[in-house]
């Protein structure tokens, strides 16, 4: 590394003579690894550096595709003490004398990866509009040919004395205590532009495009595109899109979703936060619309507006916790039926294919308080195309698999096991507040990425959405948690290039089967690991994962010309030894492209479930789906605070209510709303199945409902004089009483409404 010392002047806008002298030096080819200049005043003990907006962009870019020039700009800031850590001290300006800046480039494994050129920003042909005191700007150009994640360690010397140099943190509460400048070189993503996106590919990210000062929409779209993801998960706030009855404003969200769809990315959209005008009696708490015609109308308008831009709609976010709703499962079930019918009607109105309709994702154990069992009792399955859940459990230790098993069992219980299983949020925060050294946390997140996708995909859970692609700092944990594939300075974390490589190497992501690697001729474990075999759209590719704590994996012999790549996408050797082949995973994923994987005798083919095409889950002709029952009970009877369920996911146990509470012998007013979302009038019979000891004012009645209308039937139920089973905290749905409303219209059964009631002390 060469270091050039150049006399300079204090920063000023009149720098043409300085540029002239510097260009002469550059022409001689001397400047290569550092830059030195003269500065003024006394010497600080701490100097910050911060990323600066890239030339020609409104944001700092630190991720690059093949053919792009890898160059970043930073600014040095002498600390004035207001943003320093305890014990740091220093003046507000640079000292007089020699100031020397140098750099080295290291890869993810801390190996020297290449040289670096450092030039003043003005000399490099860029222009800064910053005030004079912030003119210490430099263009950092690393000379790196490999793919992957890299960091540049910068050294600053003032008058020959090394000064503590720190990267200035990003937004408030960020955990970015780096002392390096990170960047990534990514593979060229598969070109999906102008093609019909493959909906069976498993690789998704939560893009959640949101205008932010430090990360504009243009940056978020570019980050998503360069990741290679085939699915992006977006959010539509109902209260913003539909601020008043009959008023819709889709403009911003439609433009943003179009930006993703034009790139060939499948878009899934979740709906959350119904406007206050739709639930005026909910006392300002998050709730569902009181009138289901509002839900139906919103979904119909959304599907007609977005059409094929949106491939799937999620019918809420995490309804089992009170952060998103204070409503009960029976009311979620009724709203989802109305939304599903609205999405179908909206797509039909414009001649588009019906989009997929997803269960709102479970945030926690689906059987806590009997939530999933209540949804089954409400017969919600005929209105859905996919089961949906979230989990943030680390894969290491086996708890992740326990969570997956629980959800697979719930999907089966609810009648959704033959349909797609989606995992729409999963990740591992790379920091809780600040951490002394960031690399262990970043490494753990990368391992989680590798394990999560393979563990899920082999069990037909797809797509899998990483939370999230853009920077995100959660304020809902005791210590703010930081997530994202880039940080708040838009510098990538190692998971970002690794995800891009996974998408590139596996292409279409067709999972074929698996092998247990690392068995010798006698079948004893040797260099154990797992091989997940994929068809990327032409070749057979094995994802090799070593057992926890291992590195080298032993594979069967491979065909001549087979290639191997590490988690960052670079060539690695396949070594032959005693009739077998070994590959180093370096603790993460490795990819081995070998045309003979399926021909191996130990290959275990995958019994892939046939995907359910949009609309086929609704083909039950033995059911009148257009009629939806929604009983309206007094809101004051909904379970309120004080009920503490198990905290299954080790996050905030902010639980939504599971049912209602009654007092012995009280008279409970009920309005049974019966909706007809069909195109013709419908006539039928309704009956109530009360628990023992409960008496309804009317148990059976007949009604005719015009097309697109509802009938509200006022009733009352006298509660039992005996409390019956008491309420028990936990998963079990058995304790309590169940109110069941059933109907038959047009000689066909209707999906029932079922709610749980428990006794409240008088």
Q: Could you explain the architecture of this structure?
A:
By secondary structure, the chain is an alpha+beta fold. 17% of the residues lie in helices and 31% in strands. It has ten helices and 39 strands. An eight-stranded parallel β-sheet has the order 15-14-13-12-11-19-17-16. Helix 5 (292-306) runs parallel beside helix 6 (329-349) and helix 6 packs across helix 7 (371-377). The relative contact order is 0.10.
Fold blueprint:
Elements: H1 16-27, E1 34-39, E2 46-52, E3 63-64, E4 72-78, E5 97-107, E6 112-120, E7 137-143, E8 148-158, E9 161-167, E10 180-185, E11 203-206, H2 217-227, E12 231-237, H3 238-241, H4 251-261, E13 266-272, H5 292-306, E14 312-314, H6 329-349, E15 356-358, H7 371-377, E16 386-390, H8 399-413, E17 420-426, E18 431-432, H9 438-457, E19 461-466, E20 472-474, E21 481-483, H10 495-506, E22 510-519, E23 525-535, E24 540-546, E25 552-555, E26 563-566, E27 575-577, E28 580-584, E29 589-593, E30 604-605, E31 627-632, E32 660-662, E33 667-676, E34 682-689, E35 695-696, E36 700-705, E37 710-718, E38 737-745, E39 748-759
Parallel strand pairs: 2-9, 3-10, 11-12, 11-19, 12-13, 13-14, 14-15, 16-17, 17-19, 32-39
Antiparallel strand pairs: 1-5, 2-4, 4-7, 5-6, 5-8, 6-7, 8-9, 8-10, 18-21, 20-21, 22-23, 22-30, 23-24, 24-29, 25-28, 26-29, 27-28, 31-33, 33-37, 34-36, 34-38, 35-37, 38-39
Helix pairs in contact: 5-6, 6-7
């Amino acid at each position: 590394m060469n270091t050039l010392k150049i006399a300079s002047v204090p920063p000023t806008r009149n720098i043409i003579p300085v540029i002239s002298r510097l260009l002469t030096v550059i022409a001689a080819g001397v400047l290569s690894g550092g830059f030195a200049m003269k500065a003024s005043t006394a010497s600080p003990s701490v100097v910050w550096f911060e990323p600066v907006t890239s030339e020609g962009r409104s944001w700092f870019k630190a991720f690059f595709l093949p053919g792009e020039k890898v160059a970043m700009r930073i600014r040095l800031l002498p600390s004035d003490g207001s943003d320093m850590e305890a014990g740091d001290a220093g003046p507000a300006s640079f000292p007089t004398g020699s100031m020397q800046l140098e750099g080295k480039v290291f890869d993810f494994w801390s190996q020297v990866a290449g040289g670096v050129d450092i030039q003043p920003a003005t000399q490099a042909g860029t222009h800064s509009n910053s005030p004079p005191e912030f003119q210490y700007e430099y263009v950092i150009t690393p000379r790196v040919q490999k793919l992957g994640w890299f960091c540049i360690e910068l050294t600053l010397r003032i008058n020959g004395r090394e000064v503590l140099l720190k990267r200035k943190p990003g937004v408030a509460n960020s955990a970015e205590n780096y002392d390096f400048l990170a960047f990534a070189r990514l593979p060229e993503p598969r070109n999906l532009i102008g093609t019909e996106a493959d909906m069976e590919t498993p690789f998704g990210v939560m893009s959640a495009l949101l205008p932010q000062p430090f990360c504009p929409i243009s940056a978020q779209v570019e980050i998503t595109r360069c990741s290679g993801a085939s699915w992006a998960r977006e959010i539509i706030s109902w209260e913003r899109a539909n601020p008043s009855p009959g008023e819709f404003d889709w403009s911003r969200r439609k433009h943003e979703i179009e930006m993703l769809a034009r790139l060939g990315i499948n878009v899934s959209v979740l709906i959350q936060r119904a406007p206050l005008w739709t639930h005026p009696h909910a006392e300002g708490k998050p709730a569902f619309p009181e009138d289901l015609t509002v839900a139906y109308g919103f979904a119909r308008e959304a599907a007609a507006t977005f059409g094929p831009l949106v491939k799937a709609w999620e019918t809420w976010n995490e309804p089992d916790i009170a952060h998103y709703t204070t409503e009960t499962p029976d009311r979620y079930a009724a709203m989802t039926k109305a939304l599903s019918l609205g999405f179908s009607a909206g797509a039909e109105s414009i001649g588009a294919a019906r989009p997929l309709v997803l269960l709102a994702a479970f945030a926690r154990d689906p059987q806590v308080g009997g939530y999933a069992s209540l949804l089954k009792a409400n017969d919600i399955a005929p209105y859905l195309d996919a089961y949906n859940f979230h989990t943030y459990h680390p894969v290491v230790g086996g708890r992740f698999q326990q969570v997956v098993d629980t959800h697979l069992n719930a999907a089966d219980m609810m009648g959704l096991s033959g349909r797609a299983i989606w995992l729409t949020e999963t990740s591992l925060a790379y920091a809780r507040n600040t951490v002394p050294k960031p690399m262990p946390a970043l490494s753990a997140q990368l391992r989680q990425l590798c394990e999560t996708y393979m563990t899920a995909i082999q069990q037909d859970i797809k797509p899998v959405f990483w939370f999230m692609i853009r920077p995100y700092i959660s304020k809902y944990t005791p210590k703010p948690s930081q997530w994202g594939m880039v940080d708040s300075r838009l510098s990538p974390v190692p998971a970002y290039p690794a995800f891009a490589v996974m998408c590139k190497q596996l292409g279409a992501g067709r999972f074929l089967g698996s092998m247990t690697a690392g068995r010798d001729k006698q079948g004893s474990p040797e260099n154990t690991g797992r091989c997940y075999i994929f068809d990327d759209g032409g070749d057979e590719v094995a994802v090799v994962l070593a057992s926890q704590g291992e590195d080298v994996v032993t594979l069967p012999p491979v065909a001549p010309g087979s290639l191997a790549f590490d988690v960052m996408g670079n060539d690695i050797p396949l070594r032959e030894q005693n009739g077998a082949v070994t590959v180093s995973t370096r603790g993460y994923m490795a990819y081995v492209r070998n045309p003979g994987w399926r021909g191996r005798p130990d290959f275990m083919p995958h019994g892939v479930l046939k995907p359910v095409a949009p609309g086929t889950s609704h083909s039950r002709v033995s059911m009148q789906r257009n009629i939806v029952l929604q009983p309206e009970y007094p809101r004051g009877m909904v379970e309120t605070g004080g009920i503490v369920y198990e905290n299954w996911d080790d996050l905030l146990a902010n639980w939504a209510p599971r049912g209602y509470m009654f007092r012995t012998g009280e008279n409970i007013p009920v309005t049974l709303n019966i909706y007809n979302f069909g195109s013709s009038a419908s006539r039928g019979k309704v009956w109530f199945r009360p628990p023992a000891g409960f008496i309804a004012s009317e148990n059976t009645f007949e009604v005719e409902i015009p097309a697109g209308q509802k009938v509200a039937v006022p009733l009352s139920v006298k509660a039992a004089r005996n409390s019956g089973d008491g309420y028990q905290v936990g998963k079990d749905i058995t304790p309590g009483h169940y109110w069941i409303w059933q109907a038959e219209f047009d000689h066909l059964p209707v999906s029932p409404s079922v709610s749980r009631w428990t006794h409240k002390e008088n």
